[in-house]
Amino acid sequence: MRTLDTTTHALFLDFDGTLVEIAETPDSIEVPADLVPALTRLSSALNGALAINTGRPICEIDRFLFPLRLPASGIHGAEIRAIAGGTIESNVPPLDPALLSAVFRLEKHSPAIIVEPKRFSVAVHYRSAPDLAGVLEKEMQAIVDDEPDHLALAHGRKVLEIVPKDVSKGAALAHLMRLPAFLGRRPIMVGDDISDQPAFEEAERLGGIALRVAGELHPATLADFAGPSRVRTWLLQSLETCEG
Ligand SMILES: [Mg+2]
Questions:
Q1: Residue 244 C-alpha to ligand 1 middle, in angstroms?
Q2: Theoretical Cys-Cys bridge with 123: which of 31, 61, 108, 161, CB 3.0 to 4.6 Å?
Q3: What spacing in Å lies between the alpha carbon of 229 and ligand 1's midpoint?
Q4: For a pLDDT cut of 90, what percent of the chain falls above it?
Q5: What spacing in Å lies between the alpha carbon of 157 and ligand 1's midpoint?
Q6: What is the reported pTM?
Q7: pLDDT of residue 147
Q8: Which residue has the higher pLDDT, 242 or 230?
Q9: pLDDT above 80 for 243
């Protein structure tokens, strides 16, 4: 396993499927008791060069990681918080309410479908109704095709999401890397899903490292971590090494 060097690396962590196990619904994830203390110590060991890079709104991450409010990118890069505890900013227009209504109408297919509006994007989770993947994809693509050109359909682990075209976790990583706490360090991006791919590429382009977590996308044999618990163990071991 790659060693985290707290003096030279900057660490970017996806949340769901990376730090915590994916659950049946986005709200039912469990945050292990040792996660917040570990991230607090890590942020300090990295001199602030630790950020969450997630598809969730940053305010949700704050709720899960309370009282920690790390630098972060949320909604796949549509939101940025540049400094710990700072304000959350965005340059992206909110979604059209008519589009949102059209997406909510997809719930007619099954009570197991969860529509999650996130202001700048809207996700449709079908983990409890996997057979509906095809029909949901077709209907969501039709909704996107009806819109002006600034939206795209993104795929994830049992989730489809209408997202702004011009944002990505990669652009967010690049943006955060220009901030004083991160500048001059080598980024490590840890993630498990398709939307992490642009951040992997950006981390490598900047001389850093991409670390993949096993799941529906990355088979265990090709991943760096077998699951979120292994990521957390790696974080704790890195702390022991640097606090030694
Ligand atoms: Mg993830």
A1: 30
A2: 161
A3: 14
A4: 92
A5: 8
A6: 0.95
A7: 82
A8: 230
A9: no
pLDDT of residue 1: 65
Could you tell me the distance, in angstroms and rounded to a whole number, from the CA of residue 54 to the centre of ligand 1? 7
Cα separation, 20 vs 16, whole angstroms: 5
Architecture of domain 97-164: Alpha-Beta Complex (3.90)
pLDDT in tens, 140-155: 999 999 987 899 999 9
CATH code matching the domain that covers 9-91+167-243, chosen among 3.40.50.1110, 3.40.710.10, 3.40.50.300, 3.40.50.1000: 3.40.50.1000
Q: How far apart are CA 9 and CA 185, in angstroms?
A: 5
Sign of CA dihedral 79, 81, 87, 91: negative
Residues 83 and 47: beta-carbon distance below 8 Å? no
pLDDT, average across residues 71-94: 96
Of 117, 106, 114, nearest to 143 (Cα)? 106
> If you measure from the C-alpha of residue 170 to the centroid of ligand 1, how many angstroms do you get, rounded to a whole number?
14
What's the CA gap between 211 and 230, in Å, rounded?
A: 12
Q: Which of 14, 62, 193, 196 is catalytic?
A: 14
For residues 238 and 4, the answer to whether their CB atoms sit within 8 Å is yes
How confident is the model at residue 158, as a pLDDT? 95
